[in-house]
């Protein structure tokens, strides 16, 4: 049941989660004001965004594993402190380098908050209520990520840009104080932290993520990008080889022998790739092709995010009755249909059409996201032993974050191919193939679920046959 102690836990974890997810994108609409304040270069602007993303994505797995060892509550509260201090330092920054370092500190804190909030929620609820609780968690996560541009636009339109960071401080302080009182401590497998493993994994992920972020700006054939991607891949390969010889590995690769776990990890990667590809470009479409302000685009996208917020908790209830695969399949099909619909609409109508024409597809996309987040999180955590839940949460979130970066990079690559964009009509011509690419990525997410489900079924049949023979 949703007892008072569990409701309090949800309030604390979801408040911190919303704060961390919001800061992924909230700074975007404030970049012009920050550039004017600091006389910042384009490279500085990129680092204001990248510092958070890089720190966040690289440390998700190490912090989730560390939480299993020293305590989920302790690590979660540490993340809140780091994030809150980083927010305050961002608000008082007087130079580009100060803001970049402060944003990195925010990312470090966020990397502890996100996976451990999921572990805390999952472990606090009994199996029959877990899907509903994770539905609420997923809805808050999706909402925080999606409304970042809107919140940033509302603040920057009427207040100094520093306020987008200061709003986090009272939330962080309250979440920390209430978390001390309301959150139970919990631990998973108590295994030693292998420093070489952490360094290899962190450096490998850094190379891959940074290489993807720099690909469109520097050119995919540039020495820097090739070196980052190749070096990152090589380090991850070394990490795998190193882990195979460890008695207590940082990442249990044997978990990937579980078809359900593997299928959902890859489904999360491809879903985030496709949907981030679409959100990134459609936000620009509303502004650059249809002439809306950043705030106006954010308000219109509330159709999308509102449906995500409503659908995610309902998905938690549906999972209990219909199962993970059915709800997830429905969510992915809605997202595929929505992106195809956007693309065909722009292909046939151009860019000059009423916003109302986009509303049905935004509702489909938002509902599909809400129906997908919850079954992925619930199904993945239910597929591993309780002692491995923290690690599974970290791996899943890291893969989804990597998928988002990958999707934006590939979407940008497809969008920029061909002639230069010089008019709104050109923008429409370029966004259509990118939207179709996004729908293809989500189709790969659906195929991941189907393929690994079949592997799971075959494995079950083989086990049953072996038992009958025995």
From TrEMBL:
GO cellular component: plasma membrane
InterPro entries reported for this sequence: EmrB-like (IPR004638), MFS (IPR011701), MFS_dom (IPR020846), MFS_trans_sf (IPR036259)
GO molecular function (one): transmembrane transporter activity
Predominant subcellular localization, coarse grouping: membrane
Membrane topology (UniProt): Multi-pass membrane protein
Ranges where the Major facilitator superfamily (MFS) profile domain occurs: 9-457
TM region(s), chain numbering: 48-67, 74-92, 104-125, 132-157, 163-183, 195-212, 224-242, 263-282, 302-320, 332-351, 357-381, 402-419, 431-452
UniProt keyword list: Cell membrane, Membrane, Transmembrane, Transmembrane helix, Transport
Pfam families the UniProt entry points to: MFS_1
Cellular compartments annotated: Cell membrane
Database matches in NCBIfam families: efflux_EmrB (TIGR00711)
Name this polypeptide is given: MFS transporter
Species of the source: Paenibacillus rhizovicinus
């Amino acid at each position: 049941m949703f007892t008072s102690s569990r409701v309090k836990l949800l309030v604390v974890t979801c408040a911190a989660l919303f704060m961390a997810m919001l800061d992924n994108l909230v700074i975007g609409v404030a970049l012009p004001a920050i550039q004017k304040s600091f006389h910042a270069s384009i490279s500085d602007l990129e680092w204001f965004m990248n510092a958070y993303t890089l720190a966040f994505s690289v440390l998700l797995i190490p912090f989730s594993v560390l939480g299993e060892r020293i305590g989920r509550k302790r690590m979660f509260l540490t993340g809140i402190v780091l994030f809150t201090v980083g927010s305050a330092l961002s608000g008082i920054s007087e130079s580009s380098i100060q803001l970049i370092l402060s944003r990195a500190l925010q990312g470090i804190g966020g990397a502890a908050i996100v996976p451990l909030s999921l572990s805390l929620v999952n472990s606090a609820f009994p199996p029959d209520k877990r899907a509903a609780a994770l539905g609420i968690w997923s809805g808050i996560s999706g909402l925080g990520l999606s409304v970042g541009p809107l919140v940033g636009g509302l603040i920057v339109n009427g207040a100094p840009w520093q306020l987008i960071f200061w709003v986090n401080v009272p939330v962080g302080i309250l979440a920390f104080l209430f978390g001390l009182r309301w959150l139970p401590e919990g631990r998973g497998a108590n295994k030693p932290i292998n420093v070489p493993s952490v360094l290899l994994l962190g450096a490998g992920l850094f190379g891959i993520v940074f290489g993807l972020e720099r690909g469109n700006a520097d050119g995919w054939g540039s020495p820097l990008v090739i070196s980052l991607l190749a070096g990152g891949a090589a380090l991850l390969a070394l990490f795998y080889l190193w882990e195979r010889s460890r008695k207590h590995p940082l990442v249990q690769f044997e978990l990937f022998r579980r078809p359900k776990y593997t299928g959902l990890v890859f489904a999360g990667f491809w879903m985030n790739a496709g949907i981030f590809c679409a959100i990134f470009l459609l936000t620009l479409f509303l502004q650059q092709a249809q002439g809306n302000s950043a705030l106006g685009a954010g308000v219109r996208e509330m159709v999308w995010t509102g449906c995500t917020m409503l659908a995610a908790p309902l998905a938690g209830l549906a999972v209990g009755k219909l199962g993970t695969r059915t709800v997830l399949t429905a969510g992915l099909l809605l997202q595929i249909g929505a992106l195809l619909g956007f693309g065909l609409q722009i292909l046939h109508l151009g860019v000059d059409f009423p916003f109302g024409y986009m509303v049905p597809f935004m509702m489909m996309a938002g509902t599909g996201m809400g129906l997908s987040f919850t079954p992925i999180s619930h199904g993945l955590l239910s597929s591993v032993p309780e002692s491995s839940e923290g690690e599974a949460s970290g791996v899943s979130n890291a893969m989804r974050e990597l998928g988002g970066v990958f999707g934006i990079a590939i979407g940008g690559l497809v969008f920029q191919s061909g002639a230069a964009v010089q008019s709104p009509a050109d923008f429409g011509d370029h966004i259509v193939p990118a939207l179709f690419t996004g729908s293809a990525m989500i189709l790969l997410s659906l195929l991941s679920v189907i393929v690994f489900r079949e592997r799971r079924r075959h494995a079950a049949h083989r086990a049953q046959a072996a038992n009958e023979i025995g």
